[in-house]
Design a protein that fits this description.
Blueprint (H helix, E strand, L loop, with lengths): L5 H6 L3 E5 L11 E4 L2 E5 L2 H8 L12 E11 L4 E8 L10 H5 L3 H5 L2 E3 L5 E3 L5 H4 L7 E3 L3 H18 L9 E7 L8 E8 L10 H12 L3 H4 L1 E10 L4 E5 L1 H6 L2 H10 L12 H17 L3 E3 L3 E7 L7 E6 L4 E3 L16 H34 L1
Antiparallel strand pairs: 1-2, 1-5, 2-3, 3-9, 4-5, 4-9, 5-6, 6-7, 8-12, 10-11, 10-14, 11-12, 13-16, 14-15
Organism: Adineta ricciae (Rotifer)
GO molecular function: inositol hexakisphosphate kinase activity
Family: Belongs to the inositol phosphokinase (IPK) family.
Length: 378
């Protein structure tokens, strides 16, 4: 990234990025480019996947919208800013000033600042959710602390690279993706790591063993799915309950099932009304994955979103994180090529997820029937 002086910042047609406050999982920070678009650090394999994504999978993945070069800037007061310079193929996505003004107040007021001693922190009270956040413990927050923490770590890393040489140039490319949460007033988000196997053929032995261990010690090995992050809007407090990936790794099968039920609890009622459409969408995705021979979506995640606003029954289901997705060779020999047929691990996770959701819906319908019978007996 590039550290610019005030003159360069004011004269160059750049777009100021803000933290993407609805990021509930992942290990690298994402930023909001405009109301409908987010920036994610470019991984060559993921970029290649989006260039050749199967048509049948496009409805289940965020729309790819090009690339940008991101630049780092610290002003005289120490405020840290990130600016994106659109590439030619991304100019159509250049937001107008009106579109940028539509960003939420929370996005604009979340500001990082570097003190004279080099310490990076949030400049106002919105960052307090990060200070009070304890890894592995659910928390009640205004903005989920995961996104704020990742942004802070990114800023600290960049600042360290600039110490002693303010003219250093470090370039980083980001891909532009559809902001899946943009349509939702109060997005309730479930980020799930899918599949029974997370490592790829090219991973180092150390990374492979780490991923195998995470699967064996979590619900991934038993269910083909584990919780990577969750935020649920609470109507009674106008805040979110946030759960991180560390808590997700510790869940037993029963606790995972309970977490899925909690995902539909808004503090005053159960939002099981959105379940039928979510199940329908998951079943459609299952058919699509089953038709994609030789694809393996290792370490891929599934994003489920519904609107916490009681006036809306809007939902969405998307596959995300394709940096470890591979396409097998043409041979159909399972001995020389283990990537024959559809991704059975991913399908197994979908089967378990659909079964859990159907069970939750059936239990709710049974309770409603019991209530009706009791009313009749009265």
């Amino acid at each position: 990234m590039v550290r610019m002086n005030d003159c360069e910042c004011s004269q160059t047609p750049l777009i100021q990025l803000s933290p993407f406050i609805h990021q509930v999982g992942g290990h690298s920070s994402m930023f909001q480019y405009d109301k409908n678009t987010v920036c994610k650090l470019l991984a060559p394999a993921e970029y290649d996947f989006y260039q050749s994504i199967p048509d049948t999978l496009k409805p289940f993945a965020p729309e790819f919208r090009g690339c940008v070069t991101v630049q780092y800037y610290e002003d005289e007061l120490g405020y840290i800013k990130l600016f994106a310079r659109p590439q030619t193929n991304s100019l159509e996505n250049h937001p107008s000033s009106n579109e940028q003004d539509q960003s939420s107040t929370a996005d604009k007021s979340v500001q990082l600042r570097c003190s004279k001693d080099g310490h990076v922190d949030y400049s106002n009270s919105l960052g307090i959710d990060t200070v009070n956040y304890e890894k592995g413990k659910p928390s009640m927050v205004l903005i989920n602390p995961w996104s704020l923490q990742l942004c802070k770590k990114q800023a600290e890393k960049l600042h360290r690279q600039l110490i002693g040489d303010e003219n250093v140039t470090i370039t980083q490319k980001y891909i532009l993706l559809e902001n899946v949460t943009a349509r939702f007033h109060k997005p309730c988000i479930l980020d799930l790591k899918m599949g029974k196997r997370q490592y790829t053929d090219v991973d180092s032995d150390k990374k492979r063993q780490s991923k195998i261990q995470k699967c064996e010690l979590s619900t991934s090995s038993k269910l083909g799915v584990r919780l990577c992050g969750m935020q649920v809007y609470q109507a009674d407090s106008d805040r979110y309950i946030f759960t991180d990936k560390y808590r997700g790794r510790m869940l037993t099968v029963e606790e995972f099932h309970s977490s899925l039920r909690q995902y539909f609890s808004n503090g005053s009622t159960q939002r099981f009304d959105v379940l039928p459409e979510i199940i329908k969408r998951l079943e459609s995705l299952h058919v699509t994955i089953n038709s994609l021979l030789k694809y393996r979506f290792y370490s891929g995640s599934l994003l489920i979103v519904y609107d916490g606003s009681l006036q809306s029954n809007l939902i969405d289901v998307r596959m995300i994180d394709f940096a470890n997705t591979i396409l097998g060779t043409a041979t159909n020999d399972e001995v020389s090529n283990p990537h024959v047929g559809p991704d059975k691990g991913y399908l197994y996770g979908l089967d378990c997820l659909i079964s859990f959701f159907r069970g939750i819906l059936k239990d709710d319908e049974h309770k409603c029937e019991m209530i009706s019978i009791d009313d009749l007996e009265k």
